[in-house]
Amino acid sequence: MFAILKAYQPLSAARAEDGRTVVDEPIDTLKPQDIVEEEELERISGLLQRDNLVRGLGIVEHVYRLLHCTPGTMSMQAARHEKYHAVSML
């Protein structure tokens, strides 16, 4: 029937001290990888920069205004309150 295939990323490459490119073994994406502290700090720094940019440009506020009172964006209590008042107006 269906065979389970291992997913491999392309060969990882790194630079040696003398500038040569060194090719490592393929990375098995089905197995957990060790977290490299420098890469994690770079990732978190990028996320913080993106968060500041999105909030600074007012995108978050704009999305809140666009989605205000649309189905799925209100709390259950607010939805019940709105439904109750809509029925009582009839």
Summarize this structure as a short list of keywords or feature phrases.
90 residues; mainly alpha; two-stranded antiparallel ribbon; elongated
Can I get a quick summary?
The chain is mainly alpha-helical and 90 residues long.
Structural class: mainly alpha
Distance between the termini: 59 Å
Fraction of residues in H or I helices: 40-55%
Evaluate the radius of gyration. 25 Å
In terms of DSSP E residues, the strand content is: 5-15%
Number of strands: 2
Q: How many helix segments?
A: 3
Strand order of the biggest β-sheet:
1-2
Oligomer state equals single chain
The gross shape turns out to be: elongated
Secondary-structure element string:
EEHHH
Low-pLDDT segments, ≥5 res: 5-11
- Summarize the biggest pleated sheet: 2 strands, antiparallel
Overall pLDDT, averaged? Answer: 76
Commentary on this structure:
The structure is a single chain. The chain starts with 12 loop residues before the first strand and ends with a helix. β1 (13-15) and β2 (21-23) form a beta hairpin. The protein has a domain at 54-90. It is elongated, with a radius of gyration of 25 Å. Mean pLDDT is 76; it is low at 5-11. The protein is built from 3 helices and 2 strands, in the order ββααα. By secondary structure, the chain is mostly helical. The chain is 48% helix and 7% strand. It has a two-stranded antiparallel sheet with strand order 1-2.
Task: Outline the fold blueprint.
Layout: E1 13-15, E2 21-23, H1 37-56, H2 59-67, H3 76-89
Antiparallel strand pairs: 1-2
